[in-house]
Amino acid sequence: MKVAVIILNWNGRRLLEQFLPSVVNFSENEATIYVADNASTDDSVLYVQENFSNVKIIQNTTNGGYAKGYNDALKNLTEDLFVLLNSDVEVTENWLTPIISEFKKDFNLVAAQPKILDFKNKEYFEYAGAAGGFIDKLGYPFCRGRVFDTLEKNENQYNDTIEIFWATGACLFVRKKAFEKVRGLDEDFFAHQEEIDLCWRLKSKGGKIKCIGNSTVFHVGGATLSAADSKKTFYNFRNTLLMLLKNVKGSKVLLLIFTRLLLDGLAGIQFIFQGKWKHALAIIKAHFSFYSLIPTYLKKRRKIASNLKYYKTKSIVLDYYLRKKRTFINLN
């Protein structure tokens, strides 16, 4: 099985200096390493060319965000397995081996992720993916190891290999044939939640998605777009609505979206009380952007929506805030 590790870069020389060496040291014997550049204006590409002769450069013509950036970068690659790796990830020795072995063993496996720990606090799980992702009925994402802002300490409780609903885009393994079958990432998302949408479509085609817990990487998180940036709020709120409209079959989607809009309104009020006016405004902008994209997504919905049972729990909001179930194990 041929493997490609593809790091998407945009003006990220500092991150490449810090994290590319670990990728090269622990990957080059098992994979071809690429840096896919999203039309950077810094000297990050030159830095890679001068310091890592074995790393191949893919030059995208525009900065299309995560979704278009990877779609453009992957379309001409011939490897059997793609690894979409954020530029702020430190990998560990033999991180590829157990995941590649699982793909060789399980032909229905279409996507996977390793265990994601926090680079800044290495005893704890990292927000974006932790030990495998799930969503509730309203599309709120959570993970083994992370529910809302509660991060668990890594005590080897998630060292197993299990099926999950979504694998994190910070370190996403995906089989080339499966990726092409569902036509890749949704470029209208630009960034955030696009990996959940991709995994939803992969599962609706009968594929398996797993977390391989005996492989570990460390993720900084927010290195490109921090949680303090209102753009992140905009994309997260808007893209969840788009994802529900696109993937949930039947008239029940209307109630889901209406309920989610009301809860988004409450989140906006909370931001106002916290003095985070830009984030409250970002939610309003997200809703109007969603409304403008409804005609486009109704067309996508006709081809994509399925009856797949997608949710782990009906309401992670109720579980977390009212029932005080703050960890994934408590949910079970």
List the helices and strands and how they pair.
Layout: E1 3-9, H1 13-27, E2 32-38, H2 44-51, E3 56-60, H3 65-74, E4 81-85, E5 89-91, H4 97-105, E6 109-118, E7 133-135, E8 141-143, E9 146-147, E10 150-151, E11 161-163, E12 171-175, H5 176-181, H6 194-204, E13 208-219, H7 230-247, H8 252-273, H9 277-304, H10 316-322, H11 328-331
Parallel strand pairs: 1-2, 1-4, 2-3, 6-13
Antiparallel strand pairs: 4-12, 5-13, 6-12, 7-8, 9-10, 11-13
Helix pairs in contact: 1-2, 7-8, 7-9, 8-9
Provide structural commentary:
Helices cover 42% and strands 20% of the residues. The longest helix has 28 residues, at 277-304. It is α/β, with parallel strands linked by helices. The strands form three sheets. Strands 1, 2, 3, 4, 5, 6, 11, 12 and 13 form a nine-stranded mixed beta sheet that branches. A two-stranded antiparallel ribbon has the order 7-8. It has a two-stranded antiparallel ribbon with strand order 9-10. The protein has two domains: 3-219, Alpha-Beta Complex (Spore Coat Polysaccharide Biosynthesis Protein SpsA, Chain A), CATH 3.90.550.10; 230-331, no CATH class.
Task: Give the count of helical stretches.
Answer: 11
Q: What's the structural domain tally?
A: 2
Apparent shape: globular
Question: How far is the first residue's CA from the last residue's CA?
Answer: 36 Å
Tell me what portion of residues adopts beta-strand conformation. 15-25%
Query: What is the oligomeric state here?
Result: single chain
Fraction in helix: 40-55%
Q: Would you tell me which CATH topology of the largest domain applies?
A: Spore Coat Polysaccharide Biosynthesis Protein SpsA, Chain A
Give the low-confidence spans: none
Along the chain, the helix and strand elements come as: EHEHEHEEHEEEEEEEHHEHHHHH
